[in-house]
Amino acid sequence: MNQTSQQGPSQSTGAPRRRHLMDPNAPRKAPDPKDLERLQRVQRRVVSVLIITTILHLSAGLVIAADHVAADRTDARVGLNLIAAAFMVGGIAATLVINGRSWRSPWLLLGLVPAVVGLWWTVL
């Protein structure tokens, strides 16, 4: 049996420490507040885009589902279109709140587009 001590790559002498590893002798500097602010702004925008696209797909799916309801069930068609509009208005309001704006905004009228298009397509 070999009695020599085995040293790993981090314990070898003279080898520089890899940059992605933590070095207790040289802690990282504190992040700049402006960098953190920019990062948070980008994160809010990414989440906003994800929310809007997800809710838009959900609303479009509800309008398509309303088209597949039997022709004599006008109440179900109208109901699905109104639910699609409610989801879209809620998604727009959530996006406004995430970005630090008031949820009471004229942008909420854009959420009524699925209902108008859906009612025109499925009922009229």
Short description:
With 124 residues, the chain is mainly α. It is 56% helix and 0% strand.
Descriptive terms for the model:
124 residues; mainly alpha; 3 helices; 56% helix; elongated
How does the SSE layout of this entry go?
Layout (H helix, E strand, L loop, with lengths): L32 H35 L6 H25 L14 H10 L2
Explain this structure:
- This protein is an all-alpha fold and 124 residues long.
- Helix content is 56%, strand content 0%.
- It is elongated.
**Computed Rg:** 27 Å
Distance between the termini: 88 Å
Work out the strand percent.
Answer: under 5%
SS class: mainly alpha
SS field, number of helical segments: 3
Chain-averaged pLDDT? 88
Helix content: 55-70%
Low-pLDDT runs of 5+ residues are none
Shape: elongated
Biggest β-sheet description: none
Number of strands: 0
Order of helices and strands: HHH
